[in-house]
Amino acid sequence: MQRQLLATLCTAEPLIRRPFVLDVDDAIFLGPRGHHADRIARRAQVVICGNAFIAEHFGAQCTVTVLPTAVDTQRFTPGGRTAAAPTLGWSGSAGGFPYLVAIQPALQILMACYPDLRLRVISNAQPQLPMLPASRIDYVKWSPDNEVGALQDLTVGLMPLADTLWERGKCSFKMLTYMACGVPVVVTPVGMNLEVLARADVGYAARGRDAWVDAIADLLDAPSRARAMGANGRRVVSEHYALDVVAERLAALLEAQLA
Question: In the chain, where are the structural domains located?
């Protein structure tokens, strides 16, 4: 089971015979019907949590294990850079646009300092970023066919976040896909982002306008350091978050529930 059969409500789950496993990769317990998630979790044999923050909540009431979101490293691979200009990239659904909008002041300063710098947004909709010159924003409509190519070409991958309990429950998938493609990252140090950053020198943490400007500028000004961070990121994902690595752990966990 992933979360619940009907979003945010405990419905048919009490009729399911154990053993069953609940998989949670967002802080669903923070919603207005979060007690339903707790009720389902208490009946599960084990709750698979996407990160330590989620595990801390459910661990107070049931058996938990932390299993990160997996990245298909056979699909998300480093590629030869073809972009003519340095390119910052953000990938995600339109629901995440407020995070990108929040770092507009930093991006505005960077675009003034680097006349050829571009921003690529890979999403299901086109963002509104009025502080930035529209001619230097490249919108790529997300699809399974073009996602990886659009990431491989980036100079720096961006993952800005707010710092609330909801963001602490995020599982850093955006950050991990950049890293799998060998792209150095600049991210808000919230939740699991901190855990990933601690594994190796894969990029920078940034809070506030000046920190975002300094971190991105450092990567733009030092291509060799950026390449080294990108290589570190690829290694970290391959060792800890790759699909084959996580799948092996998941298989062992599920087999153990039937023993």
Answer: 13-67, 87-241
